[in-house]
Design goal:
By secondary structure, this protein is α+β, with helices and mostly antiparallel strands. About 30% of the residues lie in helices and about 25% in strands. The protein folds into three domains: about 65-165, Dipeptide-binding Protein, Domain 1 (Dipeptide-binding Protein, domain 1), CATH 3.90.76.10; about 190-260 and about 475-500, 3-Layer(aba) Sandwich (D-Maltodextrin-Binding Protein, domain 2); about 265-475, Dipeptide-binding Protein, domain 3, CATH 3.10.105. The protein has helices at about 1-35, 55-65, 115-125, 230-235, 245-250, 280-290, 290-300, 330-340, 360-370, 385-395, 415, 435-445, 450-465; strands spanning about 35-40, 70-75, 80, 85-90, 95-100, 140-145, 150-155, 190-195, 200-205, 215-220, 240-245, 255-260, 265-270, 305, 350-355, 375-385, 400-405, 470-475, 475-480, 485, 500. Strands 8-9-10-1-11-19-12 form a seven-stranded mixed sheet. It has a six-stranded mixed sheet with strand order 14-18-13-17-15-16. Strands 4-5-7-6 form a four-stranded antiparallel sheet, with helices on one face. The chain is globular, with a radius of gyration of 26 Å. The termini are far apart.
Length: about 500
């Protein structure tokens, strides 16, 4: 009995050992065929997972991997066919005809139809509840289904830039909850979201185009910028797209630090409806008080591009470097303007800054010191990102804020439309009839040279009117573990994770 029990025990031990060995081999094999990466992001995707409603640049750059429009931007700044396989512009930019690509799948397995395309475009053009979700869609006269493969978009007025707005995401008409259940056609599909913790996606195996290389991606919320280096070195994240210059210098040689530009207009944005910033002389005084070179030296080791208006260099034909000299630092002139405006002894105000963006915090700290030289006392108020969105951006309850404003697409209007008097996203409450007139002329011009002239007139007005205290297009330092390669910079604020791959591939 004893010997029989021993034999049984020995048999169990052998079988168990064999099972563990087989399991280990199976796990190794699976590991060879799969890959994953954890990417740090500075804030949660709290505004909306519906691509048509998302406001925050940080939300849109993540959703870029889940959604596509009829066309999509490439890293060289061009537009390439996506859900549409071909397109044609006619009648001088008044009619756009799209041929749908065969067999494009949504993440739920359904096939994209012409009805889905019409639904998506009509949704963004709807004005029944106020302004359309995409401002430029107010110019749409009709979206027609010519046949099951052909969509015709007819505009009220010709717009030769309209193709850029066809990057608007195509979503299934059947999805009743896009705010919480994102379903697109992109190379990655949604898996889960844990508020204030992470946003998880996985490779979409039925993607129509070049497949993603990495199977599983976790976007981890890293709102504490002080711990970024520790998070990277400790392995809790493999990549962070916007480390500061000082953080980059602290990283070990297991990381590569890539340098590009953020494609943002960083400025001290002023509430033009709030005293004392409703006085152009006060706004101009602040512009004369600052030294962008000093700010860039203190914040990013001198790297970045000085800006004099709401346009950054990626928009090469619109960008006006000469506007950087509209306000060269002149403390005496700044003090004289303040005295003329009724503030001979200066004044005090608050700079509201989102607490999860260290470059903006660092910039605000330098501004505080520079303003002291003209008798102006600024106090920094740090707030959570969701509070910044609700209170500053949407509620417009603030005096000033340091942030970077991005472009939703590669058009001049993407950066300039927000400053028209009736724009729903005109969070600085700027109002100037001459600006509105110049912008309208730019939008409806079908001559590229003329359009450029009027966009540049808009930039000049913003600069001379000191709508904001313009600073720079920040440098972007991307820290990525050397286990991965393939990162590409875009002339827009996006992160194309599908291009990443394991370095050993």
């Amino acid at each position: 009995m004893k010997r029989k029990g021993l034999k049984s025990l020995l048999l169990v031990f052998v079988l168990t050992t064999l099972a563990i060995a087989l399991s280990a081999c199976s796990g190794d094999k699976e590991g060879e065929n799969s890959s994953q990466i954890t990417i740090g992001i500075p804030q949660d995707l709290e505004d909306s997972l519906d691509p048509h409603k998302a406001v925050a640049a940080g939300t849109k750059e993540v959703l870029f991997n889940l959604y596509e429009g009829l066309v999509k931007p490439a890293s060289d700044g061009s537009f390439i066919p996506a859900v549409a396989s071909a397109y044609e512009e006619s009648e001088g930019g008044k009619v756009y005809t799209f041929t749908l690509r065969d067999g494009v799948k949504f993440h739920d397995g359904s096939t994209v139809t012409a009805e889905d395309v019409k639904f998506s475009l009509d949704k963004c053009a709807d004005t029944s509840a106020g302004d359309p979700l995409v401002a430029a869609f107010s110019n749409i006269e009709s979206v027609d289904i010519a046949d099951e493969k052909t969509i015709v978009v007819t505009l009220k007025e010709a717009n030769t830039e309209f193709l850029a707005y066809m990057t608007t995401a195509i979503i299934p008409a059947s999805n009743e909850n896009p705010d919480t259940n994102p379903i697109g056609t992109g190379p990655y599909k949604y898996v889960s979201r844990s508020p204030q913790e992470n946003f998880v996606v996985e490779k979409f195996d039925e993607y129509w185009g070049e497949p993603a290389h990495i199977e599983n991606v976790t976007f981890k919320i890293c709102s504490n910028t002080d711990s970024l280096v520790m998070d990277l070195e400790g392995g809790s994240i493999d990549m962070f797209a916007r480390v500061t210059a000082s953080q980059a210098a602290e990283l070990s040689d297991q990381f590569e630090v890539l340098e590009g530009t953020m494609n943002l207009v960083q400025a001290l944005y002023l509430n033009n409806a709030e005293a004392p910033f409703d006085d152009v002389r006060v706004r101009q005084a602040l512009c004369y008080a600052i030294d962008p070179d000093e700010i860039m030296m203190m914040v990013s080791d001198g790297k970045g591009t000085e800006l004099g208006s709401s346009m950054f260099p990626a928009f090469s034909k619109y960008y006006m470097e000469e506007l950087n000299d509209t306000y060269n630092q002149d403390l005496d002139k700044a003090k004289a303007l303040l005295a003329e405006a009724g503030y001979p002894d200066g004044f005090s105000f608050t700079i509201t800054v989102p607490s999860n963006y260290q470059p903006h915090i660092d910039t605000a700290q330098v501004l505080v010191e520079e303003f002291k030289a003209i008798g102006v006392n600024a106090e920094i108020q740090l707030i959570e990102w969701d509070s910044w969105l609700s209170d500053v951006y949407q509620g417009r309850q603030y005096q000033s804020t340091v942030v970077g404003v991005d472009a939703s697409n590669l058009t001049g209007a993407a950066l300039l439309q927000r400053f028209t008097s009736d724009a729903h996203n005109n969070f600085i409450n700027y109002s100037n009839a001459s600006y509105d007139e110049a912008f309208d002329k730019a939008i409806y011009s079908t001559d590229d040279a003329e359009k450029t002239k009027y966009y540049q007139e808009c930039e000049r007005i913003l600069s001379e009117d000191a709508a904001n205290v313009y600073i720079q297009d920040l440098p972007e330092f991307v820290a990525i573990n050397k286990k991965y390669t393939g990162y590409e910079f875009y002339p827009l604020y996006v992160q194309d994770i599908a291009k990443l791959r394991l370095a050993e591939e």
